[in-house]
Amino acid sequence: MKTNLAKQVLPVAVFALAIAGAFTTHAMNVRAKSMAPTQGYLKLNPQGTSCEQKDMCSTINNGIVCTVGLVPSGAQLFAKNSANQCVQPTFRP
């Protein structure tokens, strides 16, 4: 009786595990594609017309701003806009 139960339940359990793995992998791929890395620049003047390239950041707002060295005490980094000014905020990858 136990072997019959195992023969019936085991394929269903394996199938359910495969489906769960497929959904998890797909969600990870979608998230990775949406997090396009962007170059972070340090503003050298308040207008953002003069910038220095620093670290890689993300454009996805996760609530944590991207800073020099990716440390909380570092200066905030910005992305360049279409006018080549460093004024768009960036976030930690």
Folded structure, characterized:
With 93 residues, the chain is an alpha+beta fold. The protein has one helix at 2-34; strands spanning 37-43, 51-58, 77-80, 86-89. It has a 4-stranded antiparallel beta sheet, with no helix packed on it. Strand 1 and strand 2 (51-58) form a beta hairpin. The termini are far apart.
- Which band does the percent of strand residues land in? 15-25%
Shape: rod-shaped
Q: Helical segment tally?
A: 1
- Poorly predicted parts: none
Q: Helicity range of the residues?
A: 25-40%
Please sum up the structure shown:
35% of the residues lie in helices and 25% in strands. It has one helix spanning 2-34; strands spanning 37-43, 51-58, 77-80, 86-89. The longest helix has 33 residues, at 2-34.
Write the layout of secondary structure elements.
Layout: H1 2-34, E1 37-43, E2 51-58, E3 77-80, E4 86-89
Antiparallel strand pairs: 1-2, 1-3, 3-4
What keywords describe this structure?
93 residues, alpha+beta, 4-stranded antiparallel beta sheet, 1 helix, 4 strands, rod-shaped
